[in-house]
Specification:
By secondary structure, the protein is mostly beta strands. The chain has one domain. About 0% of the residues lie in helices and about 50% in strands. The chain is globular, with a radius of gyration of 9 Å. It binds zinc ion (ZN). Zinc ion binds next to loops.
């Protein structure tokens, strides 16, 4: 599928986030970053 573990920790809980399409998803918090965010 199009999910991959990025190794980036969630800034809120430090859980490893998964990249789904262009969103970074925390298993606890849901979408944390989105490709629409410009701070990358
Ligand atoms: Zn989190």
């Amino acid at each position: 599928m199009s999910e991959e573990v990025t190794g980036r920790p969630c800034p809120l809980c430090e859980e490893g986030m998964v990249r789904r399409h262009c969103k970074y998803v925390c298993p606890r918090h849901g979408v944390v970053y989105d490709c629409a965010d410009t701070f990358w």
